[in-house]
Write a structure and sequence with these properties.
The longest helix has 18 residues, at 139-156. Helix 1 (5-21) packs antiparallel against helix 2 (25-39). By secondary structure, the protein is of the alpha+beta class. The chain is built from four helices and six strands. The structure holds methionine sulfoxide (SME). Methionine sulfoxide binds at residues 45, 69, 71, 74, 79-81, 102-103, 105, 112, 128, 130.
């Protein structure tokens, strides 16, 4: 396992600060993927998938850092990304080669974590991370990414001012 609580705390503080004055969701997401990919070397692909407002059975690729992916639109019935929506919880896959649900983005990817984002209790998208390291993600990564998702959620919530 790889961990770095100080790095996590610093990223959360910077994302929270940026979110206070972010112009829109895309700029907040761009900031998140840039800072996360830059500061956490084992986060080799960092991106958002958001449910298509016109077709809530499909996830659409948003801002990301890392290799280009063919998976620009993912049916919620497919992939680890789909499982996270279906289950409504964070999914950690320590070894993607042994999980038949996995949709390959890069041949280098060894492990993955997907964290749902909710607004008013409803899933609207997710943060997806791939690592070239086997078993890269643990409970600290989960807690960190769920805090990132909470900041995006707060930014989008109707009470946000
Ligand atoms: N691996 C994901 C697909 C997205 S790419 O990793 C960027 C999945 O299994 O849903």
């Amino acid at each position: 396992m790889i961990s770095g609580q100080a790095a996590f705390d610093g990223i959360i503080a910077d994302i929270r600060e940026f979110s206070q004055s972010a112009e829109n969701l895309i700029s907040l997401q761009e900031f998140c993927v840039a800072i996360i990919a830059e500061r956490l070397p084992y986060y080799n692909w960092v991106g958002f998938y958001m449910l298509d407002p016109d077709d809530e059975r499909t996830l659409v690729l948003g801002p990301f850092r890392g290799a280009r992916t063919d998976h620009v639109r993912i049916p919620v019935s497919e992939g680890i990304c789909g499982v996270a929506v279906a289950r409504g919880e964070t999914i950690i896959v320590p070894d993607v080669s042994s999980d038949s649900r996995y949709l390959a983005c890069s041949l280098e990817t060894k492990s993955e974590i997907v964290v749902p984002i909710r607004v008013l209790g409803k899933i609207i998208g997710e943060i997806d991370i791939d690592s070239h390291t086997l078993d890269a993600f643990d409970g600290e990564d989960k807690a960190f990414l769920e805090k990132c998702a909470d900041i995006v959620q707060d930014f989008l919530s109707p009470s946000h001012v």
